[in-house]
What does this fold into?
Amino acid sequence: MKLADSHCHLNYKGVAEVQGDVLTRARSTGVVAMLNISTRESEWDAVIATAEREPDVWATVGIHPHEADQHPHVDTARLVTAAMHPRVVGIGESGLDYYYDHSDRGAQQVSFRSHLAACRETGLPIVVHTRDAEDDTAAILRDELGKGTFPGVLHCFTGSAELARIALDLGFYISISGIVTFKSAQVLQAVAKDLPQDRLLIETDAPFLAPVPHRGKQGEPAFVADTCRFLAQLRGEDPEALADATRANFHTLFAKTLA
It folds into this structure.
């Protein structure tokens, strides 16, 4: 299989220190493309440096909703400037997280809209994080798309079938993480089973959410192969064909990876 991990954090503590080994293991399992996601401004330089050094790794710039309170200065202009780097292929992750409420909800919404405006201006896709905030996420996406189109993905999808339908109607992709392999994930499995193959991505969100049979371990991009095999069985598809399709979708969405 040749796989794309559409969302990982290669510069997080615990991964950055062994990044070379992590990348070697990923490549040995067939991972040929990885998107290294930033969550706060202080990470941008390191995330981009990894992408500069590794030809199969690309980067995003963005502010996670947990960090919105700490980054009021990161506006659309700042994001657009950072996104001009040739190895930056997306903006995010950004969005809304009302489960933890680590940042004020109003600040999260302002930050999210700033990211979406940057996507409109640059043409780059938005990487959306949403948890316990489906209505506001959908409303903001609809409102901002009404001002001009941009591509995007709902990452680490754990939402409802209705949110999946809305995302697909808006032209977005949906990315499935190792959560789909968990025994408790029957609702997600039902949604993932019916997603159109041409809108589907697979991710690890490493170092989090290691799939079965790696539960309890630190997640890493190599594990995207396990999620792909599980998802293929769930959907009644050939694992290699699903790997090819999701990898092609990755490059279609993050078109700058082909530049």
In short: Strands lie at 3-8, 31-36, 57-61, 88-97, 126-131, 152-154, 173-176, 200-202. The CA atoms of residues 62 and 76 lie 10 Å apart.
